[in-house]
Every structure is written in structure tokens, then in C-alpha cells.
Amino acid sequence: KKCKKFGNVKNTPYLCTMKKINYHLSPVAAALTELVKQQMNAEVGATILLTGVPGCGKTQYAHYLCDILGAELYRYDCNTESNIGIMYSPDLDGLIRNQAAWLPGPLWDAFEASKSRRVVILIDELDKSPADFDAYMLRVLEEKSFNNPKNNTIQGNPANIVFILTSNNRRQLRDELLRRMLRLTMPYPDIKTQQQIVLEQSW
């Protein structure tokens, strides 16, 4: 996996590209993938919540979906403190030079990219963030926009955006948020599937 780093902050987001993978889909995950493809072809976008135990393939599914859709992946890892870095982060070098004071975060970069191509925005481990972060995500998911530090609106193209949010069920997410997402609990791979994955990755 090759990733381009954005900013110099804790839980740094990444724009990731990955070689084609042989992802082992459960029947329900395969049905979800087809539904997402239909929604993207209809230019309405999609929002997905993936839950399940760590290691069941939630993050890897985002890479798989990018491969299927021909999209770029923008990733943000949530944390227990401030999650402003999903939008932007302080540019210390810029402050010293009395130039730009902010660097775009993955959401900003993804929204700009969505104006010309498909993007998948992976917000990993949403349940690790404070509960009030859910309220912020409501606006982002509904309007596909947010305000930058200069109070300018950063607007994405909904037709080109797939949001994937993951959770390990550390806390309950707000009902208003859940109602806006397609939801799937990822099963843990059985022994046979695990053996196949190990063999494929060893080549």
C-alpha cells in the first residue's frame, strides 16, 4: 500500500492507493456492493456503516470498493480527542512564514477531488471519537459540505462520494446518524477463508 501523507498531526490522514486485491465477500457484503454500484451509477452517492470485531475486514473492504468503483480512497482515523484534523490542521511552517495557517485534511481534499472523479472517504473507528462528533457528521453526510477556518463552504459532489464509516461498537452512535446509512455487520472469516487469505498474501 502506498499512501500520500497530508499534514503533520496526530492520527494523520492518508490518500491511499492499493494494488488489486482478491477480497472474500460474504453474500450480504456482495449484495451491499451491488447496491452501492447501482447508487453510484444513478449518481446519488452512498453512505455505509460497517461494524464488526477488529480484523474482520472492514477497512480492507474500503480498498476493495475503490477498486470496483475506480475511486480514490481518503482515510481518516478517529481519536478520543479533537477530530478537527478530518477537515484541516494547523500549518506551523505557514504561520512562521506568515502565510497559510491551515492545511487541508482528508475531507477537504476528498471534496475537492469529488468535483472531477469518484472518491471513497473512509472514517475509521467512528466509535472511538467523542459522542458530539456524531452531530458534526450529520451535516457532512446530509449536505456533503463544511466550513473552512475562513468560514468559506467546502462543497463536495454528492454524485461522486461514497462514505464508509467503521465501528467496533465501543459506544452507541446517534440514531439520527444511523438512519442515514446502509448498515452491515461484517462476519469474521471462517477458518477456510482465513487460510485462503494467508496463501494469497504470501505470494
Mean pLDDT: 82
User: First CA to last CA: what distance?
Assistant: 15 Å
How many helices does DSSP assign? 7
Name the shape in a single word. Answer: globular
List the uncertain runs. 1-20
Biggest sheet character: 7 strands, mixed
Order of strands side by side in the largest beta sheet?
A: 1-2-4-7-10-3-11
Instruction: Calculate Rg over CA atoms.
Output: 17 Å
- The helicity comes to 25-40%
Into which percentage range does the β-strand content fall?
15-25%
Report the count of strand segments. Answer: 11
How does the helix and strand content classify structurally? alpha/beta
Order of helices and strands, N to C?
Answer: EEHEHEEHEHEHEEEHEH
What does this structure look like?
The chain has 203 residues and is of the alpha/beta class. Helix content is 33%, strand content 24%. A hairpin with a 5-residue loop joins strand 8 (145-147) and strand 9. A seven-stranded mixed beta sheet has the order 1-2-4-7-10-3-11, sandwiched between helices.
Task: Summarize the model shown.
This protein is of the alpha/beta class and 203 residues long. It has helices at residues 27-41, 58-69, 92-96, 106-113, 133-143, 175-178, 191-201; strands at 2-5, 14-17, 46-51, 72-77, 88-90, 102-104, 119-124, 145-147, 153-155, 161-167, 182-185. The strands form 3 sheets. A 7-stranded mixed β-sheet has the order 1-2-4-7-10-3-11, with helices on both faces. A two-stranded antiparallel ribbon has the order 5-6. Strands 8-9 form a two-stranded antiparallel sheet.
